[in-house]
Each structure stands twice: as C-alpha cells, then as structure tokens.
Specification:
Blueprint (H helix, E strand, L loop, with lengths): L8 H24 L4 H11 L4 H29 L3 H21 L5 H18 L6 H25 L6 H23 L4 H21 L14 H28 L8 H15 L6 H13 L10 H34 L21 H25 L4 H14 L7 H13 L1 H11 L6 H19 L5 H19 L5 H26 L3 H21 L6 H21 L6 H25 L4 H19 L8 H21 L11 H7 L1
Helix pairs in contact: 1-2, 1-6, 1-17, 2-6, 2-18, 3-5, 3-6, 4-5, 4-13, 5-14, 7-8, 7-9, 7-10, 8-9, 8-21, 9-12, 9-21, 9-22, 10-11, 11-12, 13-14, 13-19, 14-19, 15-18, 15-19, 16-18, 17-18, 20-21, 20-22, 20-23, 21-22, 22-23, 23-24
Length: 669
C-alpha cells in the first residue's frame, strides 16, 4: 500500500492557518459563554479554503444565509411546534425552496441560499422541544457560526494570504495555450480526432476559469483591480471557440473531394499559424498585416459568384475575426500582467454590461428540492412515530447532506463517501470525547491535545484528491465534540448521536438514490435540449439579442457536457460536436436578426429562414428529430441570393465584403 506523502510547505501552512482560525473561534466562544463553542470551530473549518479570495467571497454569503435561516426559524418554530406534521411540512418546504435557488445559482452566492435552508433545520429541529427559547437558541447559533466565519476569514486574509493570482493566471495562460493548439491544428489541417480533443480541453478551461474568476473581486492581491480585464479576456477566449469551429468547417468544405486550398490561402494559413505559435511574443503589427492579407484574398461576391467563392469569402471573414480575437486576448493578458505588477488600472474597455449567464436547469433544481424535502419528511416521520430523543439530529443531518451534494447528477456516491469516512472517525471521536477530554482542565491543554489530529486532517483537506474524505472525518470528529458542550459526553449519548448521524446521512442517500439520481447520458441530453430551446427562442425573437450572453451560456453548457459524456462512456462525442455547431448557428442567427433590423427590405426573405430555424430547434428540443426539408434549403438559398442582390443594388461600386470590427459590433447590438 502506498503511504501518504509528507506535507509540503503550502499544505502545512494551510493546515496551521485553518487550525489557528478554528482555535480562535473556539476560544472566543468560550470567552463569550456561548452554549455550543464547537459549532464555531466546525464552521471555521468548513469556511477555510486554500485561496483567501475564495474564503472572503463565501464569508459574506454564509453570514447572510445564516441570519436568514435563523430568522425563519424564529418565525416558524413558536407558531408550528404544537403541530409536528405541519412543522415538518413547513421546514421541508423551506429547505427545498432554498436548495432550489442554490442549485440554480452556480456562483458563490449559492451558499447564501443553501445556508438559509439547512441553518433553519440545524436550529429549528433541536428547538421544537423548547419553542419558547428558540430566539435565544437562534441568536447563539448565529453568534457561534458568525464567529467561525469571521475568525477563519481573518486568519486566511491576514496570515500569509494565498492569492488567486497564480492559479487564475495559470488557468488563463492554459486557456490561451489550448486555444492556440486548437487553432494551429485546424490551420495545419489536422485530423478531426485531435481537433475534438483540443476543443474539449478548451471548453473545460473556459468553464473552470469562469467559476474560479467569481472570487477575483474578493482577492487579497492586485488581481482584484484587474477584474474587468479578466472578465473581458474570458469573453474573448470564449468567443474564439465558434470562430475556430467555423474556420475548420469552411476549410473542410473547401477541401471536399480532395480539392486543395488555393496556394495563396495556404500561405496565409501558414503565416497565421506561425504568428499564433509565437504566443506572448506575437505582435499587434503582425496581426494588422495578416488581417490586411485576409482582406486582399476575400473574393468579391455578386450574382455570378460560385459556392466555392462564397465559402472562401466566409473563410477569410472568420480568419479576420480569429486574428482580431487572438490579438485582443494577448493585449488583455499583457494588461492583466501589468496590473498584477502594480500598474495603474486602465479605464474599462469593451466590457459587456450584462451578467455572464450560466446554464440553469430548473427541472434538476426542482428534483433536488423534492428529494431534500422527502428525506427530511422521512426522518421526521420516524422521529415523531418513535418519540426518539435524538430524532432532531437525524432530521438535520438529512437536511444538510441532501443540500451538500445536490448539484451532482448522482449525489449518492458523494453522500456515501461522506458517511463512510464519518464512520471511520468514530473511534477517533470516542478517544477524544470519552478518554482525553475528561482529563483536560484548560483551554491551552485542549488546543494542544487537538493540534496533532487537526494538523493531519488539515493537510489532507488541502489536497484536492482527499479533501472530501478529510472533511468527512473532520465533520464527524469535531461534530461529536459538541456533546461536551451539552454535558452529555457519556457512552450512551455518544452511541445515540452516532446512530442518529448515520441514520440521517444514510436516509438522505437512500432518498437520493430513489428519487434524485439521474444518468450522465440523461443529464447530457437535457443540456443539449436547453441549447435547442435557446436557439429556437433566438430565431423567433422579434428583437436582436446580445450575442455575448447567449455564447457564454452555450459555452458553459459545452463545458458541462464533457465530463458527462466521459462518464456515459459514449463511443464518440457527437453530442458535444453538435453543441459546438449549435454555437456557430446561434452566432449566425444573431447576425440575421441584426440584418433584419438594419435592412427592412430583407425582411421578406429573412423571416421565413428564421421561422424555419425556430421550428426546427423547437422540434429538436422536444426530441421529435427536426426536419431539414428541401423547402427550408430553398428559403436559405433565396435569402443568400436576395442579400447579394440588395448589396449590389445599393452599393455596386463598393469593395469586397468586410465585417465590422468586432469591438464595434458589440456596440451595434
């Protein structure tokens, strides 16, 4: 068996800081005479994160969520404590509603809703036997939890804070590098399998970057002053995805049936690839020369143009967009680097004012809420039916663990792993509670006795591969120490509490297995159907919609598809390729909508095309297949011919088609 590696400096520092924050919270709780000091210690460990920005971003939401959950408990318990069934229904409804909003909100703000839900259960269920004291109990819990949050945040922010800058800039550079590899493979005419792998990697980079960057405004380093540039760079890297895909599609179409690319086009592709390969050394002057070369190679489009001419014009257009987009990424990366080194912050540039939307699955959120409500109801039914003195512990554990893993397609493995390692912590808990704690008579002795165990657990929490298991051991260990707070540190109470914890967590797993678990393939199909619904709405909309919001949500879904397709062990990833094609189609639909607004005379030919697209994607979203009829093709062809005719009629002497600069296109929308 492979022995665990010794802790490195980063892991040791994190473990010691987490321990210091927890001990500070415990000491202050004892000093203030709070009834459950170990709750403050548990909270301090739960809040602790390797990056100080992540600790700070979640701290505020945790505080607000705790306060809201406590307020709901104070309102609910005195009114419903004499009606156990109604009380159970109200608590299940509240936890379910909060969990529903938490699952929908995939940002640090989701902790607010989750804490508001299970904090009500943590305070409310143990208070039903003494409803007149619920305000005092809730106030004490808020103070204990707030102490844990504040102490952990203070220690991680002041003592050797670990900023997000190294991790985020590394991820930014990785995203740009992976985009560069994908572009080079496409420009070199690489095989489809390599291109698919590059695209999957980039989609995952973009999703991870978007989620990690939500903590940037709370970071302790200069990174927080570059938040605008970070968001802009995310958008630019994401916008490269449909452009590169479109370039690949046009190149394959031009090389169909073994036809070679024109020699001058091949030389341009080689020059672009060489410029991209230079990475950070790529210059803006070279980008301008390459863009000018692409303009010169764009054929004039008129009524006599062939389909190959149209494909070549489209390729040159997308290449210009690719050059502009990659050049902008490099410029923004240099701006971020300068900001980290203390340069003055530049004025915001080309930032989309809208929120960066992420995928939301209301159906899965509702299913998670229902499963949590059922688990709570089942525990409460057993508690009421048996008059079990520790039934409140089982009910609150069911609420907590139904919430912890609600965002996963199959929460059962996570819940069972937590349960397994909580059981593993029982001997350690028994040793401390029944053997060591009775011999301790000062806080200093308590802190020293817990240091070895807390340090080892903290090291494993710092390691991503073992973080979940270590948190389960810590949760079981420190949670059991709370029996010392209530003067019930005896063998009978210990066994009763462990049985209640195991029952609550186990019942949450059983309910999740029956009502909540879905397959990775089923979840992937739901994500794809959401793409098609968005495309149908985009095509049917009477107004032009902002392109960036749609593209960000679609790219987020592509990132969500990748791990699910891998778990489904599909022989290919046609579904992910379809999602990328849908992203390109969505981009083109926004261009058609913009053309309708600026060219009213094109409405008669564009409206049937958009209606056909809306009808097609509506059919696909309901899994009716979607019909690509010859009539639909004829409508598209008529629109192409009509737009060429309109251009020739109004601007017969105009030079060949050139797209607006991407910076200006964003303002036009």
């Amino acid at each position: 068996m492979k022995l665990p590696a010794l802790p490195n400096a980063r892991e040791a520092v994190f473990s010691l800081k987490s321990y210091a924050g927890a001990m500070l919270a415990l000491y202050l709780s004892y000093s203030m005479g709070l009834p459950r000091p170990f709750w403050a210690m548990t909270t301090a460990y739960i809040v602790s994160q390797p990056w100080s920005g992540a600790v700070r971003s979640k701290a505020l939401y945790r505080l607000v969520g705790t306060f809201v959950g406590s307020a709901m408990t104070v309102y609910m318990v005195p009114r419903l404590s004499n009606s156990p069934v109604v009380m159970t229904a109200a608590m299940a409804l509240w936890v379910g509603a909060c969990l529903y909003m938490s699952v929908l909100d995939r940002t640090p703000r989701s902790y607010l809703f989750m804490l508001a839900g299970y904090t009500a259960a943590m305070i409310g269920f143990p208070s039903v036997s003494e409803p007149t004291l619920v305000f005092d109990t809730a106030l004490a819990r808020v103070e204990e939890i707030a102490l844990g949050i504040v102490c952990a945040t203070l220690v991680h922010s002041v003592v050797l804070p670990r900023g997000l800058a190294p991790a985020l800039t590394l991820l930014l550079d990785k995203a740009v590098r992976d985009a560069r590899l994908w572009m080079q493979d496409i420009l070199a005419g690489g095989d489809a399998g390599k291109s698919d792998k590059d695209r999957r990697t980039l989609a995952n980079d973009i999703t991870q970057l978007r989620l990690l960057s939500t903590h940037v405004p709370f970071d302790t380093s200069n990174l927080r002053w570059t938040a605008g540039a970070v968001r802009a760079m995310q958008d630019r890297v994401a916008a490269l995805t449909p452009i590169v895909s479109a370039v690949e599609d046009r190149m394959r179409a031009l090389q169909a049936d073994g036809q070679p690319l024109p020699e001058n086009v091949a030389r341009l592709l080689a020059s672009i690839s060489k410029w991209i390969d230079a990475g950070p050394r790529a210059t803006h002057a070279t980008a301008l020369r390459l863009r000018a070369a692409a303009v010169r190679l764009t054929p004039a489009i008129d009524s006599r143009s062939s389909w190959r001419d149209a494909l070549l014009a489209s390729l040159m257009t997308r290449l210009r967009e690719l050059i502009d987009g990659y050049d902008e990424c490099l410029t923004l990366r240099r701006e971020i680097r300068a900001g980290l080194n203390g340069a003055a912050r530049r004025a915001p540039r080309h930032l989309d004012a809208q929120r960066r939307p992420l995928h939301r699955d209301h159906g899965m959120a509702l299913l998670s809420a229902a499963a949590a409500g059922l688990a709570i109801a089942a525990c409460c039914a057993f508690w009421i039916g048996t008059a079990w003195s520790n039934g409140a512990t089982a009910a609150l554990m069911a609420a907590i663990f139904s919430c912890f893993f609600a965002s996963q397609d199959n929460p059962v493995p996570g819940i069972m792993q937590f349960l397994t390692y909580t059981v593993y912590s029982i001997p350690l808990s028994a040793l401390y509670l029944l053997g060591i704690m009775p011999a301790i008579h000062s806080f200093e002795m308590l802190a020293l006795s817990m240091l070895p165990t807390a340090f080892v657990i903290g090291v494993f929490i710092a390691r991503p591969a073992s973080a979940g298991k270590a948190m389960a051991v810590l949760f079981g260990f420190v949670g059991t120490m709370a029996l010392h707070d209530t003067n019930t540190a005896d063998l009978v109470s210990f066994i009763d509490t462990q049985v209640a914890q195991i029952m609550g967590v186990g019942l949450a797993a059983v309910i999740a297995a029956i009502f909540r678990t879905v397959s990775a393939d089923w979840s992937a199909r739901r994500i794809q159907a959401a793409n098609w619904r968005d495309l149908a709405a985009l095509a049917a909309s009477p107004r032009t919609q902002a392109r960036h919001g749609y593209a960000a949500r679609m790219l987020d879904r592509i990132g969500l598809l990748q791990p699910r397709l891998a778990l489904a062990k599909r022989p290919d990833d046609v579904m992910a390729a379809d999602a990328l094609k849908d992203l390109r189609v969505g981009r083109d639909i926004t261009e058609l909508q913009r053309a309708r607004r600026h060219l009213p005379m094109a409405e008669p030919v564009l409206r049937p095309v958009l209606d056909g697209l809306a009808r097609y994607f509506r059919d696909r979203s309901s899994w009716r297949g979607g019909q690509k009829t010859p009539e639909f093709l004829a409508q598209i062809d008529r629109a192409v011919v009509a737009l060429v005719g309109i251009r020739r009629a109004f601007f017969p002497d105009a030079p060949e088609y050139q797209p607006a600069h991407p910076h200006l296109e964003g303002h036009a929308s």
